[in-house]
Please model this.
Amino acid sequence: MNTNTAPVTPLPTMHVVWDWNGTVKDDLDDHVNALNATLPALGGDLVDRETYRAKHTVPIPNFYARLLGREITEQEWLDSDGAFLEHLRAQPVRVRAGAVELMTALHEAGHTQSLLSLCPHDALLAEVGEAGIGHFFDRVDGRTGASGGTKAAPLAAHLDALGLAGQGHRVLLVGDALDDADAAHANGAHVVLHTGGLHHPAKLAAAGHHVADTLADAVALGSQLIARTAHLACV
Model:
């Protein structure tokens, strides 16, 4: 009997880029309430969770346009964004259930992690500090320029600063929005979207992206995608 077996190929080391709002930070209701604090001044109606998730998009001024049925002026955007962020900052930071345990397991398995968000950098650092999870991340980047943009260019800069430019094949972005997927694809990275965040699951699925109901499932699926890519590269 032939007892020879094929060598076992170890799973490749991956780098996980975490999104913050709606992903690691469990703040959908905070976002809905913050939005509702700004809409009356613009002549808009209050929205519920389902409407928020179905119509949310970036750039955020486009989100307001969807809700109001008109474009907003630059001054309206500045005023609304300021009021929104003020309301959001007043809420306690709640990390999604299981996130700390998952990050611990990833660290112990030798994987690396970072955090990238379009929320203001100083606010992000303060919230990560409040949550007590900053030690998991090799880098934490929030927005430093004007608000209302998309994540593709910030992700490129984030990966470059980590020394991962051109290594998207071993990068997994875990987010909750279509813009997260667009950013990952623009940078050659893998992406799995969490269904409990700011975008409605039906919208994520309709766009054809990989989705998962928990962060643990998102990482498990992402690791499979990265392992598959590594295997194909060796064939």
Observations:
- Residues 15-28+95-234 form a domain with the Rossmann fold fold (CATH 3.40.50.1000).
- The chain has a mean pLDDT of 92.
- The two ends are 28 Å apart (CA to CA).
